[in-house]
Amino acid sequence: MASIRDYNVVEQFNSRLEEIRAKLLVQAMGEELNDRVAELCQEHRHYMKSVLGTCLKKCKEDETIFDMIQTYKEDLKEKTSLQKEKSAEHLEVVSEIEDKEHHKALLFQRIEKLKKDQAKNRELIQSQNKANKDRLKKLNKCKDIFQKHLCLEIRKIQGENLQFVFRNISHKDPDMVHAFLLQLDAEGVYHIISCDPPLEKMAHLERRLQETNNFSAFLANIRREFVALHSARVNHDSVASRSVTFSITCSFDAKLQRTSSQ
Fold it and tell me: Using CA atoms, how far apart are residues 138 and 162, in angstroms rounded to an integer?
């Protein structure tokens, strides 16, 4: 009892109990820790195995995705190349269309110009036809007047040429022919082709006809010139005849004088 009551003994006893308790606790904790560590190691192995399988699967999936991405890149590259080619072809087609549209616009402009020119030519032809009809009416009127009063004959020869034949120029020979050939060109201008017998004033009369377009006066002036030319020829022949007669008479008188003196 005395030893139990001793303070040192109590302390030693308590210390010893603590050591025993610590050993027992360590021993108990060690076994439990080992079990826990083994369990954790097993779980870790299972986890790592699961993670490794997942990673391998993910890696295969990634490789598949990378292959698909590469395939998509190649397809995109090919499609881009085709798109560029199609774009170039499209630009070429657009250029051809623009050229055709420009050519079409030029053709429309030419067609419109041709239509306008055709309309102008039609109007000009109609105007010329009307003018030619008016001239033809005047010619027919002149023809009737001159045929009736002046024995004028009009003949159509050599295509569109007209021959005007005058008679009754000579009183001694009414059937003697004086004629000229007339041409009317596409612009309605008169031209003298020939004249028989030739007249000195024909060029002047032709210009006057082109300026005034007075065909009746022109025919009257032509007939007047034919008459004047014929009268001049007749007078010249008459003077020549009188000169020959006078010469013969003088010669005959001279012979008579020589005979009487002998």
Answer: 14
Confirm if 205 and 148 have CB atoms less than 8 A apart: no
At residue 176, φ and ψ (nearest 5 deg) are -60, 130
Average predicted confidence (pLDDT) for the chain: 78
251, 256, 257, 261 alpha-carbon torsion, rounded to 10°: 140
pLDDT tens column, 30-75: 666 666 667 777 787 787 788 777 888 888 888 888 888 988 888 8
CB atoms within 10 A of CB 139: 20
Largest Cα–Cα separation, the chain: 249
| pLDDT given at position 19 | 82
Secondary structure of the chain as H, E, C letters: CHHHHCHHHHHHHHHHHHHHHHHHHHHHHHHHHHHHHHHHHHHHHHHHHHHHHHHHHHHHHHHHHHHHHHHHHHHHHHHHHHHHHHHHHHHHHHHHHHHHHHHHHHHHHHHHHHHHHHHHHHHHHHHHHHHHHHHHHHHHHHHHHHHHHHCEEEEEECCCEEEEEECCCCCCCCCCCEEEEEEECCCCCEEEEEEECCCCCHHHHHHHHHHHCCHHHHHHHHHHHHHHHHHHHHHHHHHHHHHHHHHHHHHHHHHHHHHHHC
105-157 pLDDT tens trace:
888 888 988 888 888 888 877 777 777 677 777 767 766 666 666 678 888 88
Report whether 218 contacts 205 (CB < 8 A): yes
